[in-house]
Amino acid sequence: MSGKVKEWFLQRIPINTESTANAVNEVFKEPIPSHMKYWYYALGATPLILFLIQLVTGVLLTFYYIPSPEKAFESVRYISEEVRMGFYIRGLHRWGSNLMVIAIFLHMVRVFFTRGYRKPRELNWVIGVLIFLVTLTLCFTGYSLVYNQLSYWAATVGTNMLKEIPLIGTLMLEFLRGGTEVTANTLTRFYNLHIIFMPLFLLILLAVHIVMVRLHGVSKLEGKENEEKTYPFFPEHFYHTLIVGLFILVVLSSLTVILPPGLGEQANPAVTPNHIKPEWYFYGIYALLNLLPLRFGIYLIIVFIIVGTFWPFIDEYIKIKWPKIKVHYFFGSLCAFLFLLFTVYEMFV
Fold first, then answer.
1. By CB count within 10 A, which of 41, 174, 227, 253 is most buried?
2. Closest to 305 in 3D by CA, of 134, 114, 142, 98
3. C-alpha to C-alpha distances, 57 to 96, 229, 306, nearest whole angstrom
4. Residue ranges per structural domain of the chain
């Protein structure tokens, strides 16, 4: 009976089982450099795991969320207080976004300081930067959907900054807001960006990123390309990834139970709060823009993003000119120090 069923499916889905088995076997036997046995090197799969958690919890939240100024806040309250396990799903989604930012940032820091972006992996670094920027955009739009006082005014202040971007600033502002002011159109556009366009874009970027890693293989430590031993992906590295996934679920569940996301006050466009602050991952940018003239600060951030995106090519040029100078250590340390300094400063101001 089982043979007939198998034959029936193979006639309608003519899959070459031998080639499929070979492909799967090749994936499981992919050589992994020995340094990946250390946990702090094995952060690459963490953002993907968190993204899948965000997809599942996000879809569940759309069953109850209503993207309109009159009902958005109430629908979030209903999810948090009345829907069975609603607070848990919302908590996983909220804390998952925070951990995803941290995971991508730590992974990029590791790749940066080990120069994992060096030739021929420059384009994968560019894709990684885009993944980080898209993730921040998802966090910004998602935070705004709660439609409480802080999220509404943070969205207002955040989009106001777009006006200072040269050439396309005003156009971007009106596109995101659906006009010159934050209205129902803004909430609808943020909702569409958050549940359709940005997740789809991020999914494509993640898929391309993984394909590029498969094509080039996991980068070995610089200077040990020919010396470092390897081990197969399965079972050790596979179990590493599995343990990371389970650990993430435990952490997310604990944070959700101990520190469930609050509601705050419903958005009121007529009343401006005394203190408007973005989420913690925007503290560094917020502090910088408060300390510097707004336009100059925006220009500085744009330059930093451009330099960071194309850093592998800049670093390769510097290395050719001055081979003994490891400028990436200085540049990376300076950026990390300033980011932490401005973030901590904004926390206690």
1. 41
2. 134
3. 9, 40, 33
4. 35-276, 284-349
Copy the structure tokens of residue 257: 């139970």
Q: Distance between CA atoms of 11 and 19, rounded to whole angstroms?
A: 17
Return the structure tokens found at 335.
């950026």
For residue 73, the number of C-alpha atoms closer than 13 Å in the C-beta half-sphere is 16
Strand partners, 32: 231
Instruction: Decide: 33 and 42 in contact? Cβ < 8 Å.
Output: no
Q: Which residues contact 341 (CB under 8 A, 6 or more apart)?
A: none
Model confidence over 72-100: pLDDT tens digits? 999 999 999 999 999 999 999 999 999 99
Bridge partners of 231, per DSSP, are 32
- Do residues 301 and 285 make contact, with C-beta atoms less than 8 angstroms apart? yes
pLDDT at 1: 63
Find, among 114, 127, 300, 289, the residue nearest to 215 by Cα: 127
pLDDT of residue 41: 73
Amino acid residing at 92:
L
Q: How far is CA 41 from CA 153, 184, 246, 295, in A?
A: 39, 44, 18, 38
Length of the chain: 349
Homologous superfamily (CATH) for 35-276 = Cytochrome Bc1 Complex; Chain C (1.20.810.10)
pLDDT in tens, 281-311: 999 888 888 888 988 999 999 999 999 999 9
